[in-house]
Amino acid sequence: MTRPSTGYSLYELLLTTTLIAALMTLGIPSFEAILARQRQQVEVNALFHAVHLARKESIMRRKVVSICPSQDGAQCLPGRDWSAGWLMFENRDRDSPPRIDPGEPVLRRHRVADNIVISANRRGFTLRSTFLRATNGTLVICDRANRIRPKALVVSYTGRPRVALATPAEKPYTCAD
């Protein structure tokens, strides 16, 4: 009397392993793009909300509020690379480009994910109460490995941000190398 087989044959195991390897080869690159897109969206949202919060705080406090790139969360960086992070502070002496001086309170700090690159055409953004214009400009948010299209956060003179995929000339944004 023969007993029914309860295991798998070597052929069945090799076939299953090959099939799993093929599916993983096809699925991992698209999964990496999904993760890159998600990380980019997190940074776009963080900057978008920071600009809104800075605008709101400048109106509520009737003070000048600035956002600048920062590596340590304590001082503004002199360049236009925002890839390390940024901070928001009350710019009491209204210096331009913005820089933190003693006695100026930091309102928010943000550290950017390692695989995201953010570059701007400004060293900082300053938002003032309703009677003066804000600093306008563009921040371009990119994946370090260029797996996805860059997105830009465009800040208007009124301090309102919007997300864009292309320039006003309908050309896609590019990432700084």
Count of alpha and pi helical runs: 1
Percent helix: 25-40%
Principal-axes geometry comes out as elongated
Average pLDDT metric: 88
Report low-confidence residues grouped into runs of 5 or more: none
Spatial sequence of strands, sheet with the most strands:
3-2-1-5
What is the third-level CATH name, the topology? minor pseudopilin epsh fold
Tally the beta strands: 8
Largest sheet: 4 strands, antiparallel
The end-to-end distance, rounded to whole angstroms, is 72 Å
Strand content: 15-25%
- Would you state the CATH class? Alpha Beta
Number of domains: 1
CATH homologous superfamily placement:
minor pseudopilin epsh domain
Summarize the helix and strand pattern as letters. HEEEEEEEE
Q: What class would the helix/strand composition place it in?
A: alpha+beta
Q: Could you characterize the architecture of this molecule?
A:
By secondary structure, the chain is α+β, with helices and mostly antiparallel strands. It has one domain (11-164): minor pseudopilin epsh fold. The chain has 1 helix and 8 strands, in the order αββββββββ. It has one helix at residues 10-61, and strands at residues 65-69, 85-90, 106-111, 116-120, 125-127, 137-143, 151-155, 161-164. The chain has a 4-stranded antiparallel β-sheet with strand order 3-2-1-5, covered by helices on one side. The longest helix is centred in the N-terminal third of the chain and has 52 residues, at 10-61. The radius of gyration is 24 Å and the shape is elongated. The model has no long low-confidence stretch (mean pLDDT 88).
